[in-house]
Specification:
Helix content is 24%, strand content 13%. It is of the alpha+beta class. The longest helix is centred in the first third of the chain and has 24 residues.
Length: 222
């Protein structure tokens, strides 16, 4: 077998090229302002409330190399007695937002909720820049916790739509969206990234039973 000799100059060029690729990847993660969590805390929809969810976003982003600290989970909450809840759309800043590969997800809050968003299976990447499996894959994890209506506002349905404001891993339910924009039927709800249906419960197993894993969206609030 003939061995190919590589000159020192060739090795240097290869190392520089590899270094450039690593630098580009690091730069992309550094500028990332949107991602779908690669994993939840592991307690179903119990995220320790909004503060716990925000902290989880920040922890994952930091581990991926992001220098941003102003991460917010895209989650709504409700309030008892008819008082106003918290809208997910009001928590995430003004935009624009890009994923870990630099793809523009939405320019602003209006675009994000207008059908001009770019959230789909190819673009709703994790903080590591990896896709999440969806409908049709061996393991379906397309249910994403939001607790929101299509406009990104808290639900007024009157029942539990946020698993006790993201503190329950037992009874209750939470509204989820489909990051892959697919469902059992060809309807607008099944194609919604933020408001498709309610879960069967709040435990990790209950979320899995309808195609979820306790994942949620994270946005950098600029």
């Amino acid at each position: 077998m003939k061995l190919t000799k590589i000159s020192p100059a060739g090795i240097l060029v290869a190392l520089i090229a590899a270094g450039g690729m690593i630098s580009d990847a690091q730069a992309q993660h550094k500028n990332m302002s949107f991602f779908l969590t690669s994993a939840g805390p592991g307690r179903g929809a119990d995220l320790d409330g909004l503060d716990g969810a925000d902290a989880h976003c920040a922890e994952l982003a930091k581990a991926a190399g992001s220098k941003r600290t102003n991460w917010r989970a895209y989650l709504s909450t409700t309030a008892p007695g008819g008082e106003a809840g918290v809208n997910a759309r009001d928590r995430i800043g003004k935009g624009p937002w890009h994923n870990a590969k630099g793809v523009l997800i939405a320019r602003n809050v209006k675009d994000l909720h207008s059908g001009r968003d770019k959230i789909n299976k190819q673009n709703a990447l994790t903080e590591k820049g990896e896709p999440i499996s969806g409908r049709g894959d061996a393991v379906n994890m397309h249910d994403v916790l939001t607790g929101s209506d299509p406009a990104g506002m808290y639900s007024t349905a009157g029942s539990d739509t946020t698993c006790a404001n993201w503190t329950s891993s037992e009874a209750g339910s939470a509204i989820v969206g489909h990051h892959d924009r697919m469902g059992l039927k060809d309807t607008r709800h099944m194609k919604s990234w933020n408001s498709s249906h309610g879960t069967r419960g709040c435990s990790q197993e209950a979320l899995k039973s309808t195609g979820g894993a306790g994942l949620f969206y994270c946005f950098a609030a600029k």
